[in-house]
Amino acid sequence: MRTLRRQRSLPFQGKNTVKVASALVSGLHPGPDLAEQAVRQALESAGLERADNVLLFLTRDFARHAQPALVAAARAAGCLQVCGSTASGLLTGSGWLLDQPGAAALVFESDGSNEPAAAPTLSFTGHSTLPFEWQGSPPRAGLLESNAVTWSHGRITPNACAEARLPGMTGTLLRSAGLLLLGEARPIDFSQGYDIRRIDGISAADDLRRSLPAELRAQPPVHQLVALRQADEPAIAVLSINADGSVTVGEALADGEHIHWAMRHPASSEAEMRQLLQGAARPDKQPDFAIMLSCIGRGPLFYGNDDRDLLAFREQFPATPLIGAYGSGQIAPAGKRNRLFHNSVITLLFESLHV
After folding, report:
1. How far is it, in rounded angstroms, from Cα 114 to Cα 271?
2. 156/300 Cα distance (integer angstroms)
3. Measured between alpha carbons, how far is 293 from 301 in angstroms, rounded to an integer?
4. How many other CB atoms are found less than 10 A from the CB of residue 213?
């Protein structure tokens, strides 16, 4: 059986304005020692004896063992500001972990400022959908993982929702949808519930097949196909292409709406990620640290041999400490509210407000 785990030794190097570092550890059992080791390794890399804030992600193996792990992490860090959740997988700058128990920790020292964070609120939930109260202000960025355990202030949250703000930090949010657009947007002529029947004068199935590359038309990759209302909105999954010429999608669409067909595509996803990172890079300074929140269907399972999004990040920001996790949904602002995305990568680049 092929293992889906790779860790590289990348030394911490960087001249950041805050002391910060991350660490990823794994083991055979989900014990509190893993959380403690992750925090202690991160503290050592950052040159700290204690931390003011800790982001801690644990694999799903900790679902019944999270509280002892949190206690161990808080003791090792010397603080109670520990926030995070369980997740399907973990990542840091040293690699990714999907197949065994593990802990990822990022620690940093505050400059003592009480200045409000100029970044989206970090938000983690174990609900199956985006909580209603999170759909409005303030802007949020985070991870949804069904049945996840969440924590803040070093304690398990009873409502499976945890949030944190990082005082004195400003954050830039990048979202990679990883989609290849297929043709132009066209109007829906006729739909019934979740079935799109006619688009721009022809059956929806024929319109979709016509949009695909020629080699995919005979057997369309349904699990990779989506419909888009707008480029910045969550994609709507294509569920089936039916014998009667209709296409069943995961959300009801109205007659007259314009939609784009699109597909998940590894090469397009990697290219988009690299373009976003290059656009956010500054020639004079790298971010102090970063958080990458990815879909479990996007990382190594999507690319086939490695997490190319993580590789792109390390190539663009080799000196930036990174922590992240894989989940079933990604939370990010879109338009005037927060939305739940899938198969996306949310990357947050943080810098101190006091340069």
Report:
1. 39
2. 29
3. 15
4. 9
pLDDT digits (tens), the chain, 355 positions: 233 344 433 433 444 568 999 999 999 999 999 999 999 999 999 999 999 999 999 999 999 999 999 999 999 999 999 999 999 999 999 999 999 999 999 999 876 666 656 789 999 999 999 999 999 989 999 999 999 999 999 999 999 999 999 878 889 999 999 999 998 999 999 999 999 999 999 999 999 999 999 999 999 999 999 999 988 889 999 999 999 999 999 999 999 999 999 999 999 999 999 999 999 998 888 999 999 999 999 999 999 889 999 999 999 999 999 999 999 999 999 988 999 999 999 999 999 876 5
> Residue 36's closest CA among 84, 83, 68?
68
C-alpha 47/C-alpha 218 separation (Å) is: 58
Encoded tokens for 246? 């209709």
Identify the three-state secondary structure at position 10: coil
In Å, what is the CA distance from 257 to each residue of 47, 189, 228, 271, 334? 56, 8, 10, 29, 19
d(CA 222, CA 81): 44
Q: Is 355 exposed, middle or buried (0-12, 13-18, 19+ CB in 10 A)?
A: exposed
**Which residues are within 8 A (CB) of 283 and not within 5 positions of it... i.e. 6 or more apart?**
none
- Give helix then strand counts, H and E, for the chain: 6, 25
